[in-house]
Design brief:
- With about 750 residues, this protein is an alpha/beta fold.
- It contains 23 helices and 37 strands.
- Helix 15 packs antiparallel against helix 16 and helix 17 runs parallel beside helix 19.
- It is globular and about 90 Å long.
- The N terminus is likely disordered.
- Belongs to the eIF-2B gamma/epsilon subunits family.
- It holds the Pfam family W2.
Length: about 750
Amino acid sequence: LQFILELRVLDSLVKSNLISEGGGGGMGAQKKGGGAKVSEDAEEQSRQRLQAILLADSFATKFRPVTLERPKVLLPIVNVPMIDYTLAWLEYAGIEEVFVFCCAHSVQVIEYLEKSEWYSHPNLVVRTIESHKSISAGDALRYMYEQQTETSQIQGDFVLVSGDTVSNMPLADLIQEHRERKKKDEKAIMTMVIKQSKSSSLTHQSRLGTDQLFIAVDPLTKQLLHYEEDKIDHPRGSICLDKSLLDSNPSVLVCNDMQDCYIDICSPEVLSLFEDNFDYQHLRRHFVKGVLVDDIMGYKIFTHEIHSSYAASIDNFRSYDTVSKDIIQRWTYPYVPDINFSGNRPLKLGRQGIYRASDAVQSRSADVGASTVIGYGTKIGDGDKILNSVIGNGCSIGSNVVIEGSYIWNNVTIEDGCEIRNAIVCDGVKIRAGAVLHPGVVLSFNVVVGRDFVVPAYSKVSLLQQPTTEDSDEELEYADSSSGTADHMSGLNLQMEPKASELGPDGAGYIWEVCEGAHDEEWKHSVAPIPKDKLSEFTQAIDDDDTDDESVIPASGELKSDADSINTDMNDPNDDYYYFEKEVEGTVLRAVEENIKVDLVTLEINGLRLSYNMESADCAGATFYSMMKLAVDTPHSSASELYKTATSIISKWKELLGFYVKKIDEQIEVIMKFEEMCQDSPKELGPLFTQILHLLYDKDVLQEDAILRWAEEKAGADEVDKVYLKQCETFIQWLKEASEEEDEDDEDEEEDD
C-alpha cells in the first residue's frame, strides 16, 4: 500500500511539472485537439510565473532556547534543514519563483541559501528579502506590499507558506481552481488547504500538538464561514456560532476534525488588506477572522481539503516528532531519507525502516532497532541500543548507551553508559559518561552534561541564561534577535559570563525554568509521550464521561437552517483509524523486539488511543492485527509454520490483548478484524481461521458468548460473507453443545437445591 501511495504521489508531481513546462507558466496549458481559441485572460495567466512567498521566521518562541542561536527554518528534521523540504516541494509542484522573507537570524538564512543549490537551481528562482523591523507575519506581508509598489515583484496569485512546511501535495490544479473561482467571484481572495485530523476529545490537541480547530464552511461552495483555532473554553467541546450564518446560508458544515496545513493560495488583494489594516499581525487570529467578520468589503476565503497527499507545519516539538516519524515512515514521499531532493546525501534504506549512511560505523554487538536513521560519519559503540531515533552526522556514541525516541543532531559526543529517552540534542553537545536525559529534555547547542548527571524531564538547557522576562506573544522572536549574534544577545540581555554549571561540576549550561502557568504546555508540546499521571487523569475522565449525557458536537456535522438535526456522516473516520493502526503496529513491533513489559506497552497504546480519540474496541482490533501481521511477516514456508509463529506470539502477549477485550463487543471486534485479514489474504491466513479462533478461545482471550454472538450475526449475511463461518461450523457447533450442557447442569443443580 505504501509503495502504491508513493507511486501515486510521484505521478502527481510529475504531472504537476509537465503542466508547468507545457504551459510556460504552469497554468495556461491547452488540451490537444478542438482548436479552441484561448481567451486573453488565459493567455495572461499562462504568462504569469507561478510564485510563492516563504516566511523564514515563525514569529514564535516555541522552539526556544534553540532558536535563540539558529533560525527555526535551518533546524534539521531527519538530518535535513526544514527549509529544504519546503523549497523542494515548491519546486516539484511547479513553482518557478520563491521570495524568502528573512527576519530573525537573516544573515544565517541568506548565507545558507547562497551556499546551497537553490541559488543556481535551473527550475526555481530563489530571492531573499530582508527586514529588521518586521516583528510579525503581518509586518512581513506589509513590507512585501511596500516592495510590490516599487518593484512589482508579485505578478498575480501566489502561494503563501512558512519555511517549516513539509508537503508533497500538487499545487497546479489548486492554483487553477483558485483562479477559476476568482474569475466568477472577484471577492474570492484566498484558498486555505485543510486536511482531516481528529483531535483528542480530552487534550483538545491534534497529533501535531496544535490546539483543536473549529471551522464552519458552506458544504457546496467550500467557503469558510467560521474559524476558531484558539483554546476552546466552552464546556464539553461546544462552540457558539452566529445565527446570521444560518440566516445567510442554507446549510453550514461544522467540523472539529480538520487540520490547518498553513498553505494558502492568495490573490494580490491579500497584501493590500494587510497594508490597510495595521492591526493584522497573525495570519489566522487576525487576518482570517478579520475577513470573515468584515461585511463592508465582502472578501471571501475558501477551503480545499486534501486526502491522499501529505501536508504539515512544524509548530512545536511534538509536531517536530510527529513529522519526523511521518518522514521515516515515508508518508512524505519523495521527500524521504533515501532520496536526494535538496542536495542532501541519501541514505540506504534497510529492513524495519532503518536508514543508514554508507560510512556509518556500527559495532557488531550494537542493536539498532526499527524506524531509526544513522547519519554520515557516525560511530556506534559496543552494546548500544538505539530505537526509533534519528542520529545526525559526525556523532560519536560510546558503549552501552541507550537511545530511544530521540533526535541527536550533528557532531554530538555521547560517552559510555548514557541513557537518552525522548529528547532533542542539538549540534556539538557533549554528554559525559553515565548521564541520563529524562523524557522531554532539550539540550541546545554545545551544552555539556556532567558525568552521571540526571537531567530532569522536560528541561530546556542552553549555554545562554534564560531572559529575565519572557513574553509569550508571538511577535517577539525577532525582537529577541537580529541579523547578528552580538546584537541578538544584547537585545535579550542574555549572559554567558562564567558561573557554576547547573549540569554538574564538569558540565556547562543553564537549566531554564518553566514559566508560570506553562507547565501543561511542556508535556503537550514535547517529543515525549503523555506522562503517566496525565494518562491516568485522562483515563479517569473517559470513564466519567461514559456516564454523562451525549450532548457533544460530533467530529463534523451539517447544520441546516430548516432543521436542528446534525448529519454526522459527512466524513469517513477510517483514515484516522488507519494511522492509529499503523502506530499500534509499530508499538507492538518494538515491544516484541525489545521485550518491553506489558504494562508499559499498554501505557503507550493508551496514549495513542487518546491522541486519536479511539475506543477500547479499536485498540483490541489494532493490537490483534499487529500480532497477526508480525506473524505473517516472520519468514515461514508453510501454513503450519505460520500457525506455530502466531501461537507463540499470542501466547506471549495475550495479557496485552486481554487488556482490551474485557467486553463481548470488544472480543467480537477481534473476530471481525481477523475475518477481514483472512479476506485480504485468503491463501495465507484463510485456512487458519478456525485454528486461530480455537487458539484464542483456549487462551481465554475470547469467550464462547462472543464467538456464538458473532456466528448468530453472520448467519443472516449473504453467502459470500459466510465463508469463514462455514469453515468453523464444527467448532461453533461444539461450543453450542457445550453451552447447552452447561445450561442443563445449571438447571440440575438448581433442582437439587
